[in-house]
Amino acid sequence: MSRKDVQKVVVLGAGAWGTALAIHLARSGHDVALWAHSDEHVQSLLQERRNLRYLPHVHFPESLRIVEDLAPSLEAADAILVVVPSHVFRRVLKKVSDLVGVSKKHIAWATKGFEPEGRKLLHEVAREEVCQDCHYTVLSGPTFAAEVAKGLPTAMVSASTNEQEAAYWANLFHHDAFRMYTQGDMAGVEVGGAYKNIMAIATGVSDGLHLGANARAAIISRGMAEMMRFAGLYGATPETLMGLAGLGDLVLTCTDNLSRNRQFGLKLASKQSSESAQQEIGQVVEGVKAVRVVKAIADEKGLDLPIAEQVYHLVEGNISAKEAAERLLARELKAES
After folding, report:
1. Rounded CA separation 59/96 (Å)
2. Overall pTM surpassing 0.85 (yes/no)
3. Of the options 3.40.462.10, 3.30.700.20, 3.40.50.720, 3.20.20.30, the CATH number for the domain spanning 8-184
4. What is the spatial distance between Cα 293 and Cα 205, in angstroms, rounded to a whole number?
5. What is the phi-psi region of residue 274: left when phi exceeds 0, alpha when psi lies from -120 to 50, beta otherwise?
6. Domain ranges of the chain
7. Could you give the CA distance from residue 117 to residue 321 in angstroms, rounded to a whole number?
C-alpha cells in the first residue's frame, strides 16, 4: 500500500484510546468511521464532534465519521481496528464476524490485556471467533491517548506473523510525528501490553506509600524480569520485551500519572478499596483483570512472580498496601538472574 492511498477504516470502540487513534487516522488522510457501543455515546459524539467524556478538548477532524449503523461501514471498510476493553474483545469480534465477511479485510487491535474468562491472548481469541487462518495485527507501545490526540510525538509497533499485514498497519499510521515500527512477535507484544499494567499498579502503590525513587526503579526492573519470565511461556523473544511494547510501555505506565493503572495503585496505597478506586477512576483498569489471569497461569505453571502475586492479593482485598510492600521486602536473598 502506498502511503498516499486513502483507506476506509472502521474503529470499534470510542473510549479515550479508540477516539485518539481514529482522530490520528483521519488527520492522516484516511476515511475513518468511529463506532461506540452505547447509543447515548454515539449521539453525544455526533452532536459535539468531540469525545466529551475522555478527550473534551480535542475536536474531530471533518473526515472523521461517527457510525450509527455499523453493518454498512464494515461492509465498505478496507480495515477494521478494534479498540475495546479486553473483557468485551471476544463479544465485539463475534459481532463483527456475524455482520460481515471479514476474511479479505485487514484486522488489527490496539486492546491491551488478556481475555479474562479463557485466560487467552487476544490473537488466540481472534482465531476462534473470526478466522483460524486469517492474518491479524496487534498495535501496541508506550502511548497515552491524550498525547496522540494532540498530535504529540509517538512511537508504536505493528506486530503480525505476516510481514505484509504488519507493514499495512504501519503505513496506515505512519504520519507526521507518529512512527510505527514492524515486527513479528505478536505474543510478546501482547504480553508486554498486558503485564505492564500490573507493574504500574505496583509502582503506584510504592509511590503512594512514599517508598522513594529507589523502590520505584527496583519494581520496574524486577517487574521487567517477571514480564520476560511470563512471556517465555508463549515463546516471546527477549528483544520484543526490551522494545517499545515491553520496556517502553512499562516505563511510561509506571512513571506517569496519566496512567490509570498507576492512579489505581496510588489510591490503594491511600487505603481505598479496589472497588472504590476503580469507580473513582471511571474507566477500565486493565491491570486488575490482567493480574487475575497472570496469577492463575503462574499457579498452574509453577512460575515465581512475586510482584504480580502481591498485586493480586492487594486487588482481591486479602492484604493492605503496607503488607504487600512488607512481604516483598521480606523475601529471601537470591541471585539476580
Report:
1. 28
2. yes
3. 3.40.50.720
4. 20
5. alpha
6. 8-184, 194-329
7. 27
- Reduced to 3 states (helix: H, G, I; strand: E, B; else coil), residue 18 is helix
Domain 194-329 has CATH 1.10.1040.10: yes
Helix/strand/coil for 56: strand
In three-state secondary structure terms, 114 is coil
CA–CA gap between residue 100 and residue 205 (Å, rounded) = 45
Give, for 108, the enclosing helix (H) or strand (E): strand 106-109
- Contact predicate 64/32, CB 8 Å: yes
Q: Is 331 helix (H, G, I), strand (E, B) or coil?
A: coil
Other CB atoms within a 10 A radius of the CB of residue 15 amount to 20
Pairing of strands 79-82, 64-66: unpaired
Q: What is the pLDDT of residues 236-292, one digit of tens each?
A: 999 999 999 999 999 999 999 999 999 999 999 999 999 999 999 999 999 999 999
**Distance between CA 62 and CA 59 in Å, rounded?**
9
Q: Which residues are catalytic?
A: 196
**Cα 232 from Cα 301, distance rounded (Å):** 12
Segment (H or E) for 315: helix 306-315
- Give me the phi and psi of 299, to 5 degrees please: -65, -40
5-58: pLDDT as tens digits: 899 999 999 999 999 999 999 999 999 999 999 999 999 999 999 999 999 999
